[in-house]
Amino acid sequence: MQQPGRAAEIKAIGIGKSFGSFRALDNLTLDIGRGEFLTLLGPSGSGKTTFLMILAGFVQPTEGRLFSDGVDITDRPAEQRTAGMVFQGYALFPHMSVEANIAFPLKVRKKSAADIKRRVGEMIERVGLKGHEKKLPAQLSGGQQQRVALARALVFEPGVLLLDEPFSALDKGLRGQMQAEMKRLHQETGTTFVFVTHDQSEALALSSRVAIFNHGKLLQVGAPDEVYDRPDNRFVAEFLGEINMLPLKGVRPADNGSTGLCEDRAVSMRCKAETVRGDAILAIRPEYMSISGEATAGENGIAATATNSTYLGAATRLDLTTRQGAKVTVSVPNEIAAAALSKGNSVWLTWPAEKGFLLPHGGQ
Amino acid sequence: MRAYLSDRMGAALLMAPLLLFLVLAYAWPFLGVVKWSFTLPTPGLGQYEALLTDDLVQSVFIRTLRIAAVVTVVSVAAAYAITVVWVRGTPAQRLVAEFCILVPFWISVLTRAFGWVALLSNRGLINTWLQAIGFISEPLALVRNEFGVIVGMTHFLIPFAVFPLASAMRSLDDRVLLAARGLGSSRMRTFWSVFVPMTRSGIIGAALIVFVFSLGFFVTPAILGGGRSVMVAELIYLRIFQSPDWGLGAAISVVLVLFVGALMALLFRYVRPKQLI
């Protein structure tokens, strides 16, 4: 349908937005690559939707400039930008049939009737709505409405597709199905996708890169595994998934990374202690920690007592407390959890050096 | 179930005085009017036959429908514009629109009719000014004709058209309008191909309510028509009070009530009563 070359490349420089005294977005600089699938992730009120609305042209930034393929579009009204948009709740035209909804962007662009017919037909086929052409949006299921919204936003081959929490109204099963479908549409069209969500698993599953927002600030941008495994700060670490945090003393650089003392036991990390010295936080995702009877010399480990377990089916979630009172959660095979609990006393928690990372002590 | 039943009982009891009043003050006397239409001056369907053949009655009916149609179109169009400002304007614009909508409700229909006479008559403000600036040499016939009736009725009915329109515009999802603009549609195009069609139920409701009101207008056409643009209500009045022709007046009343009833039934298929307030 579209040459990948037509996807837009977007550059935001120093974008800020204030609503009265409320700072919705602060000094945001971000490059969105041609044809990439970028997710804007953050809690509500973090500025992610404001940024999407600025990209769409519905909200005017108070500072900064926005470029699309090198052209300054900051002051360009929404209807003159080449962005397709899928709204939360779909925002379909309730008085128009499926066909007319999808044809709308082509009609306002004054395409010929034959061209409109062909492209609408192709799009209906592509999103699997054949047989529903004459129906009104109210006669469709949530998933079908979602497809109409996607088709309508893609039919005029926009340089960028903006999606504002498009799946928030769908139930879990349908949501997974639509996510897969959207990934396929992204590959087929080659268009740049900018997707807003507050669901971290959705962000990690779909995107080529994730941009994490909080309190109007862009905190970190990176590939899903990058932001998940090497978060820059505590907010990102905690927002992307469960994380265990252990206090660390005497952090200093070492061969191949850094070392420190965790409850009087030496531990090593692969990451560099560049910005963090002395006291720090060692953060490890629960799935990278395992339980054993004894930590061998040179292995990263800490003694802890199991306090509680939750059976999850495939695994058991185990809550433990270290000698100095730090709380740790791990997900382990069921029989190991049972053994750890039955012993009633101390077990060892171990983890590979490359899976631990340093966060500054206290604060964000 | 018991709570539900007693709720219904309570509602029925609360409505009972009003229903009783309506039955005693309207329904019962109206049955009397129905009876007259079949019995005066002689029993039979004579008055309904006369209604179909009498040129005067027919011309009045046609004039009434014509005036009601023009008033409906003009009132709904004007009300639409005011309502857009009232619902979607800046706070200052909203205040002005609200003032324009509500003030007419505080002035009696009689006062307003005479106000229009003062403005529109041969020696009224408008003709005097137009002559003073030399725009016209002879006064324009603005009143004591259909034009005057239409002006006065439109002025009276615009606020009634505003409420169903406002209700339709308020329930409209703003994101749909944003979506239209995001898909490349200009403001004008978004208004005509998205905003207006989406407020269709409000337009139908407003048109029906104005039309129904127009059919029964009495004071405004009597004053601003000056006896030359008689509408149905005035005709009934003349038949009953100024001639001994009660049977024909009653028959016209029955036809008018049936017609209005049919339109009201149509109205409530499109609009919930709550939207009219």
UniProtKB/TrEMBL annotation, chain B:
InterPro entries: MetI-like (IPR000515), MetI-like_sf (IPR035906). This is Putative spermidine/putrescine transport system permease protein. It holds the Pfam family BPD_transp_1. It comes from Mesorhizobium sangaii. One of its GO terms (cellular component) is plasma membrane. It is found in: Cell membrane. Its main location: membrane. The keyword Membrane applies. Residues 61-267 form the ABC transmembrane type-1 domain. SUPFAM superfamilies: MetI-like. It comes from the Bacteria. Belongs to the binding-protein-dependent transport system permease family. CysTW subfamily. Keywords: Cell membrane, Membrane, Transmembrane, Transmembrane helix, Transport. One of its GO terms (biological process) is transmembrane transport. It is a multi-pass membrane protein. The chain crosses the membrane at residues 65-87, 99-119, 147-166, 203-226, 246-268.
